[in-house]
Design brief:
globular; Rubrerythrin, domain 2; 77 residues; mainly beta; 5% helix; 3-stranded antiparallel β-sheet; 2 domains
């Protein structure tokens, strides 16, 4: 299931959405379908302590300095 990142062109809300087949994503805040797709990074899970790539920067969703996916990685501890 692909996860896509969007910014709503109506209310400027940024969000991620699971998109199945030919479905169209919708803004969860204002329900507009006028969306701008965003470039996103992907996370790779491995055994051991979670480490972020030094070039990755903070998580685009929550701002966690551990990098993309770092905030959800704590759920696996």
């Amino acid at each position: 299931m692909p996860i896509f990142e969007y910014v709503c062109q109506n209310c400027d809300h940024g969000f991620e959405a699971l998109v199945y087949g030919s479905e169209k994503a919708e803004c969860p805040k204002c329900h507009s379908k006028k969306l701008a797709p965003q470039l996103s990074t992907f996370a790779v899970a491995s055994k051991g302590a979670p480490k972020a790539s030094p070039s990755a920067g903070p998580c685009g969703t929550c701002g966690d300095p551990g990098g993309p996916g770092a905030c959800s990685m704590r759920d696996f501890d």
